Amino acid sequence: MSVADKSALIAIKRDIDNHIGERVQLKTNGGRKKTVIREGILEKTYPSIFVVRLDAPGMCRRVTFSYSDILTETIELTLVNDNRKIACM
Length: 89
Description:
The protein is an alpha+beta fold. Helices cover 22% and strands 51% of the residues. The protein is built from two helices and six strands. It has helices at 3-17, 67-71, and strands spanning 23-31, 34-45, 49-56, 59-66, 75-79, 84-86. It has a six-stranded antiparallel β-sheet with strand order 4-3-2-1-5-6.
């Protein structure tokens, strides 16, 4: 991993840290040209991953993603309140 990639991951983590507890929209690839869009609450961050609690009627589901998922655009994370996308700098 290059120094630029490492600094981009640190910037992404810092950006996510600033929005813990906020509502986010996740856009992921569901396979076979299918996109899955879900909303949830940005719950926690760890050194390598972050946790999103998804809104699902009658159940509490948590999913984890790595910061490199955002860097490689495997997922898109958008803040619902101000419609700002969290992305690599």
